[in-house]
Specification:
The protein has 308 residues and is an all-alpha fold. Helix content is 71%, strand content 3%. It has 13 helices and 2 strands, in the order H-E-E-H-H-H-H-H-H-H-H-H-H-H-H. A two-stranded antiparallel ribbon has the order 1-2. Strand 1 and strand 2 form a beta hairpin. The longest helix has 41 residues. It starts with 17 loop residues before the first helix and ends in a 6-residue tail after the last helix. The model has no long low-confidence stretch (mean pLDDT 88).
Length: 308
Amino acid sequence: MTVPTLAEQPPVTPAATPEAARRKRRVPYWLLLPGILWLLVFFAAPLVYQASTSVQTGSLEEGFKVTWHVATYWDALTEYYPQFLRSVGYAATATALCLVLGYPLAYLIAFRAGRWRNLLMVLVIAPFFTSFLIRTLAWKTILSDGGPVVSALGSLHVLALTDALGVTEGHRVLATPLAVVCGLTYNFLPFMILPLYTSLERIDGRLHEAAGDLYARPVTTFRKVTLPLSMPGVVAGTLLTFIPATGDYINAELLGSTDQKMIGNVIQSQFLRVLDYPTAAALSFILMAAILAMVTLYIRKSGTEDLV
């Protein structure tokens, strides 16, 4: 048995000192520090300020003072609950339409696009290179009384049916609930497609082959394999669509009328026109609490472990 010489022996790693171990443990916290500071300055501080504003009383001339007037929340809710319900209804409808339109497209890109995949993905995110306001103004032209949509629907005699359902009025689309929902669906459709594509692209294609080998029909394969495995993308896409759509006010402002105002329009008006800051802040907190409650319930009932 040969004994290795000193030069052949592996170097001995010195034991880490307690100070070095403490510095190593502090590294993750130092990496988190910029993000924590950003949240404190641009989220927590404004949130606290708005919370104090919501319990103030006074006027712009006399000034506002914190008097803990919590009745502002009840007054704001009882006066503007129709706008709350309308916002949830429009956002839920737009989210459902985005899911119906976005899932087939995401499926096509993930499994059938081939060499056209990158081009299709660029086309999906291309609207982000244009201003949100400009895109909505374009829809105002598309849905105008002399535009192609109204002409096509009129030729097909669809407007009579939509008028009876209450989504259009007077054989016109602009300044109706249908116009607002169309604008919301178009503007937030990429937020649905991208998480769906990410979830579908992660599915192993061999699972589809195994389902085919077991004589499963394509519908059964989709129902038993594809849809359950893509549920994290469905949940993420619906959340990314529903949450901003509920608080949106641009589409209702440009594509709707006074009868289609959403809660975002009320908050914007209270802040910038009426100058009733306590009511505006109270409405903001009610909206945030309502969305948080609905999202929490939805995630718990969705059955996906990735987001719970």
